[in-house]
Amino acid sequence: MAAYVAFALTDSLYLEGFDKLNSYTNAVESFLCISFIFLYFEYFLLKGKLNSPTRNPVFITNCAILIYMTSTVGIYLFLNNFIAQNDADAVYRIYFINLVMLLFLSITLARAFWLVGPVATPADRYCIS
Known about the structure:
Layout: H1 2-15, H2 23-47, H3 57-84, H4 88-116
Helix pairs in contact: 1-2, 2-3, 3-4
Keywords: Membrane, Transmembrane, Transmembrane helix
Transmembrane segments: 27-46, 58-79, 91-116
């Protein structure tokens, strides 16, 4: 965590500055998230309980984040180049792709939360239905 913060500060202060999107920091963030997701998948496979991964909310959440991160890391690396070229159409396309991927991520996370269902609280014991 400290190494990531140090890299983000170095990127902001020296590499890209404050006037650009910190695409290198986004790339490192995506690489770290994808690495942690692959570690979870390895744990999930080695655990041996493969009843139904489509019914496991954590598995679904990790799949959604993996798809979002892998689809947006590349476009953020080129965003500063398109901004420097003053190519508004390419920037709009990048943000549209990001919008579609965020919509996919939101729907998938909503499905994962729906699979968990409501959690009974201690106050629910005393409610009369």
